[in-house]
Amino acid sequence: MLLYALRRLIYLIPVAFGVSLLVFALVHLAPGDPISAIVPPDAPKEVVDKLKEYYGFDKPLPVQYLRWLGVTLTGDLGTSIGTGRSVASEVGSAFGNTIILAIAATLFAFTLAVILGTAAAYAKSRIVDRLVTLISLIGVSVPHFWLAIVLVIIFAVELGALPPMGIGPENSTGWKFDRAHLAHMILPTIALSVIPLGVVTRTVRSTVKETLSMEFVTALQAKGMRDSRILLHVLKNAAPTCLAVMGLQAGNLIGGSILIETVFAWPGTGFLLNSAIFRRDLPILQGTTLVLAGFFMLLNLTVDIIQTMVDPRIKRG
Amino acid sequence: MALQSPSLDIGGAVLVTPKPTAGGRGYWQSVGRRLRRDPVTLICAGILILLVLASIAAPYLYLADPYKTSMIRRLYPLGSPNHWLGTDELGRDMFARLIYGGRLSLFMGVTPVVCALLIGGSLGILAGFVGGKTNMAIMRIMDVFYAFPSVLLAISLSGAMGAGTENTLLSLTLVFIPPICRVSESVTTQVRGFDFVDAAKASGASAFTIVRVHVLGNVLGPILVYATSLISVAIILAAGLSFLGLGVKPPEPEWGLMLNTLRQAIYVNPVLAALPGVMIFVTSICFNLMSDGLRAAMDVKA
């Protein structure tokens, strides 16, 4: 098992190399000089050259890449052009806030999806099945940033029941486990969970339905096992597929949270990325993208490994 | 995608059922017949055709000028005389802007998928058919793009390149090439293993002929079905980019951008502020249902 995990990790190295190339290229996709964002257009040439030298933009591209890679591998993501603070610390504090929201949304989506999907697969009446199918269709079709606005309109503006934005009261920038912070989390969590909810409900429904039609279920019924015990067996068989899909969705949710964080002014990586784009703060853009992509890669790897652990049918080739 | 994203996952391997008469007329006829008997798909197709026609014909529909601002007519509620869907934060007629908005929103949702279908589809079929090192090279490059959540990739690329319609189209195309390429590769690899390909090879058919007749006929269905399911993701993503200010620039009418600029109005006229999102929602639901119908009619298991 450990060997398998190790081998998968080694396979990840070329991909990680490609990712680093792509993230490095981001700065050079930008129109104009990367330095032009921080100096006024009428700055004297010596100043511009000095700054170029300081940031290393005067070297040829491969040299720049290797230097950047070397520095990045030590955990130093550079300095923000906008604030002058270290990118690693800015991304680090934002990342925690994003993860909190992502975990909440993942748990919410997965629990609800399993309940709804199983109910639909078991349902004798067509109405329940149709209703659940409709919910999952809405989940995958709704523009989640629009849903976020609608939720704000209903629960914050009209009802005044929940706070419309922010992570907590009075410009709080970090998450704490208390009532006020939890209340601030409700709307973003719901908005963020609709897409995974739709996708996973679909998967749970079809997988459970497929498992139910297998012969072992009939055998268990024939030997007189209680339905609740059979459900346990069915869920155990359906779990690997559903977990795999959920894992992928959890990763995509990190990407989707960029829009949600912007709507709710949630101080996470998405919010940071968005503001960096408008300040043309390329080191932050680079750093955030790199951290999120790295996290996404590791998450996918973990899901893969967990899947092979719970499902002995998958060959560890 | 993903948007989750909307998701860009394939959801397990795509299974291809070999069809002896590749792309024969009988198959497409039966697909058409099944589609005509599917009311949900027909209704969705009708709504989409209506939306497309309305946005194409927008200048001839006697609508109000979607760019004409008016400081005294700002944020009129729904049902106002002369502005039955109200006016936006700059006093522009909402109905006209929603109809005109369809032009860019639909265009920016469909174009990247079509481009990605051409590029990613060709790459995937090439990788699947040639196999070996070519396959390795192409698929490993795609793996790199797969290491990013789709929304993150789109936003980072657009963010680096700067706002603008062309940049959005470019970054969205890049986002959709890898998933389409992966699906194309996996179905082509499966088709290549069927006996009729060997038979064609044995009877001396050139590689090009085999791809054109035997491979394309069998893989086009699954790839097309998958691509149509991406359109709704693309529409949401494109609107999302404009919503963030990374796509279409003001004052162009576009649903995502309108949603953004109308956010300041949620305390004054909440229903109005949510309207552009309804358009995105309806379009995306119709594309999703149509793709489901197409999948069923073409008998593609996914």
Automatic annotation (TrEMBL), chain A:
PROSITE patterns: ABC_TM1. It holds the Pfam family BPD_transp_1. InterPro entries: BPD_transp_1_N, MetI-like, MetI-like_sf. The chain crosses the membrane at residues 9-30, 99-122, 134-162, 182-200, 284-306. Residues 95-307 form the ABC transmembrane type-1 domain. Keywords: Cell membrane, Membrane, Transmembrane, Transmembrane helix, Transport. It is found in: Cell membrane. It is a multi-pass membrane protein. It comes from the Bacteria. Belongs to the binding-protein-dependent transport system permease family. This is ABC transporter permease. It comes from Reyranella aquatilis.
UniProtKB/TrEMBL annotation, chain B:
It is found in: Cell membrane. Keywords: Cell membrane, Membrane, Transmembrane, Transmembrane helix, Transport. Residues 102-291 form the ABC transmembrane type-1 domain. PROSITE patterns: ABC_TM1. It comes from the Bacteria. Pfam families: BPD_transp_1 (PF00528), OppC_N (PF12911). The chain crosses the membrane at residues 40-62, 104-132, 144-164, 223-246, 267-290. It is a multi-pass membrane protein. Belongs to the binding-protein-dependent transport system permease family. This is ABC transporter permease. It comes from Reyranella aquatilis.
